[in-house]
């Protein structure tokens, strides 16, 4: 199915604070609760994510849609998608294939600032 | 202790991608793993958070430092602070007093988009 066939339902669009800005999307392992990464979504990437059940972000560095895992195979299969109370942040509950981080770590959040700042 | 006495260590500052922009900070319950909210930090709020062990954000709406819980009593006591691999997002592992969300819900993420978009 071509990507441009995906659109957000009116019910979802009304909940977004601003459908024209990028909003942070947190990927969380649906079993362990581990936070895997934070990336960004625009309306199109959210629509594709909801429709395909594969996490799809907007790459700020490449300025293009980014199906997580499309080159690495490390897909994130969607179990749930939660929007926050003011409509400007998302939690994706996912099944992570392989590791989320390009370093090979399971999670991108592996630098402990309390230890580093001691 | 006046807030302006807090500063980031050089070791932490070097890990930040850009110390002059706001970065998203995810608060997560340190026991259950539940994601509670997402707010924003600048360098000063991160320094205060690390020093005081109370989550302190930068309020984008009020344009000021925001010690979470200072009016509601719903403080977030810091257990760990994790920076991601590219230095532009944070996870705060916290003990949440009361609820994180102003609606009274424990978590701000309580709108299920898969259900809403059906």
Automatic annotation (TrEMBL), chains A, B:
Keywords: Amino-acid biosynthesis, Cytoplasm, Histidine biosynthesis, Hydrolase, Magnesium, Metal-binding, Zinc. The keyword Repeat does not apply. Its EC number is 3.5.4.19. GO terms for biological process: L-histidine biosynthetic process. Gene3D superfamilies: Phosphoribosyl-AMP cyclohydrolase. Pathway: Amino-acid biosynthesis; L-histidine biosynthesis; L-histidine from 5-phospho-alpha-D-ribose 1-diphosphate: step 3/9. InterPro entries: PRA-CH, PRib_AMP_CycHydrolase_dom, PRib_AMP_CycHydrolase_sf. One of its GO terms (molecular function) is phosphoribosyl-ATP diphosphatase activity. Residues 37-110 form the Phosphoribosyl-AMP cyclohydrolase domain. It catalyses: 1-(5-phospho-beta-D-ribosyl)-5'-AMP + H2O = 1-(5-phospho-beta-D-ribosyl)-5-[(5-phospho-beta-D-ribosylamino)methylideneamino]imidazole-4-carboxamide. This is Histidine biosynthesis bifunctional protein HisIE. It comes from freshwater metagenome. The lineage of its organism: unclassified sequences, metagenomes, ecological metagenomes.
